[in-house]
Amino acid sequence: MTIQRQYTLPHCSLILEGLSTDATDPLAPLTVLMNAECRLPGATDAILSGGREFLDSLVVAVSRYGQQLLSGVHYPGVAASAPLVGLKPGAGSYHHLIVQQPPLGEPVSDVNAQPPLDVKLSTVQFYDLMEAVDQLLADTQTLPDLTAQFQAVSRRLVQPTEPIAKRAAPAALGAAALAAAGLALFFVPPPTFEPSRPESEATTPAETSQTPPATPPETAPAAETSNGATAENAPADDGDLARLENAPAITDPAAIALLQSDVTRRLQEAWANGPRPSGNLDYRMVVSENGDILGYKYETDLALAEVDNTPLPKLTFVPVAGAEPVQEPVAEFMTTFTPEGEVVVKPRETPTPAATGPTGELPTLAAKVTDGDRIRALNSTLYDDILAKLEPLSASEALRFRVRLTESGEVVGYEPINAAAGLLAAETPLPSLVTAPDSTLEQADFLVVFTEGGVLEVNPWDGWP
Amino acid sequence: MPVDSPTLSPSSLMLDTLPSPGLPSDECPRRARIQLDLLLLAIEALDLDGSEAMLVAARELALEGLIKGRVHLWLLRGTNPMRRYSQRRPLQLEEAKALVMVICTLSRRLTVLIRQLLIGYQQLSDKQLTLDHHFRLADYLSRFRSHFRARMNPRRAGVISYSTDDKLDDLAVELLQQLLLCSGVLGPQRLWSSLFDGEVA
Question: Which ipTM was obtained for this model?
C-alpha cells in the first residue's frame, strides 16, 4: 500500500511517498521510501525530488547548516565527494541550496551532466525547509530509522577565526626582532676584563725582589705566601699609601695623641690571641681622623713575611673605589708588634721638610720679564750659579724643577716638577740659592733639569724668546 | 497504590532530550553563556513582558527547581561575561538546559512576530532601504540596542566590538534569525548542540 506523507509549511512542502511493510495495518509506519519531493514555492518553481539518497543528503545538509547559523561556527565540509544537497551562505542574509541533478535513468557522464540547481532562500524560507525536515525527523510514523543526529562540531574541525598567517605574525615578529638584535650585537666586541692596578703596584716587585736573598731558607715559603698575599692585597696596603700621599696631615698634637691611644687599644685587642712574631714587626700606618686604618706598609722584611699574623689586614678599611685619592686629614704612625705581644704605636715624624720648605708651589707669575736678551742673560747666570755648587746626585732619574728668578738674577723660589725632584730637592744646590723669596721685581721662570747622568740643563720656562 | 520511587518530573524527561555534550566539566563554556543571555535579551526586546514571560514559562515547564525566581534568573544570565554585573559563578549544564527550554518555548510563541520582522528585514535590505522604514522592526532594534547598552560592560573587549548602532542592529537581526531556528519542533536540540560547537573534543 502506498503511503504519502506531507509536511507543509508556508514556504516549503515536503512530500514523501513510500510503502509500509505491513499492508493490513493502516497505521503502520512508512518504512520504504519510494520518492521524496520538495517544493519551495516563492523560491523556485523547480521540484526537487529524489530517492532515499537525496533525502538523507538533504537532512544532513539542512541540519548542519542550521547548526552553523545558530552557533556561527563553520563546519568544514568533507571534500571527498560533493553531496547531492549542499547549503552555503550567500550575499546579504540569503542562503543557497545547491542540488546536484542526476539525469533520470541514465548513469552520469560528461555529456548529460547538468549544472547543479542553485536555489536562493531567505532565512524564513530556509527555516521552513528546516522545520519540514525536523517534522519528518520527529515523526515516528515515517521512516523510523531516520532520526535526528545532533552532534556539536569538534574542536579539531573548527577553523580558527583568524587565519594562521595572522596568528603567527606576532611570533614571527618577535623571532625576527631577536634575530636582528643578535645580528647587531654580533658585531659588538665582547667586553674584555682588564684588572686595573694602581700605578705604584709596579714598584712592588722591585721591592720584594730584594727580599729573597735576605730571608732564611725556612721562611722562604712563608715569604712567598705573604708575597702572594701582598699581591692580592695590593690595593689594600701598598696602593693605599700611594693614595694617601696627597692627603692632608693631622697636625693637632692632642688629636694625634688621642688617635694613637685609640689605635693602640684596638690593635692590642685584635691581636690578643694572635701568634707572636719572631722579631719586631714595624709598619707604617695611616689613620684617618675617626680612627680608621686607611693603609699600612711594612718597614722590614720580617714585617712583610709575618703581616698575616698581625691584625692589620683585618682592621684596614678597604675603600669601595680603590683608586680615589684620600682627601680627609690623616695621621701617620709607626706601629711595632713586639715578640712579647705588645703593640707600640708612635706618631711618625714627617721626613719631608722639603715639602713644607720654601719650595711650596710658586704663585702665578704676576710681572713677567719679557725682554728676550734679559731672559737669555738670566738663563746663563742661573746655569752658572747652579753649576758652581752642583755636587753628584743620588738620583736614579732626572730631577726637574721650575725655578723663578727676578730680573736682577736673584732666585725667588723653586718648585719640583716630578716626584723624585721633590724628594731629592735638598741634594741640589737650589735651596741654598734662594735669596729673595719676597721680591716684587719682574720675574721669569726657568726649567732646570738634573739628568741622571749628572748633566745640568737650564731653559726658559716659556721657551727661548 | 504506594509509590516506591519518586516519579520522574516532566521537566527531567524534557531535559533528558538534550544529550550531554561530553565536556570535561559540568560547566558551560563561555560562548554558550554569552549566546543564551543574548537570546534572552532579544526575547526581551521583542516582548515588552519578556522578563515576566520567562519566569512564567519556567514555571509552566516545571523548571522552578532550576530557575528559582527573578533574582536567580538574573544570576544565571549574569554568567555572561559581557555583563556589567557579571557573575563569577559557573553556569551548570542543567541550568543551561533550562534556559534553552525557556528560550525555545518563548520563541515558538513569538514565531509569527519573528517571521514578520525577518520578512520585513529581507524586503528592506533587498530594496536597500534603511531599517527605519519598518516600524515594528525599528522598534525591536532600538529596544535591543538600549537593553544591550544598559546591561553590558562597555569596557569589555567583546562589547567594544558592538560599539556602533549598525553593528548592534546586525547582532539583533542575527539573534532574530537564531530565535526563529530555535522555534521549530527540534529547536531545543538544535540550539543545545550548537552551543558546544567547537568546544567538544
Answer: 0.88
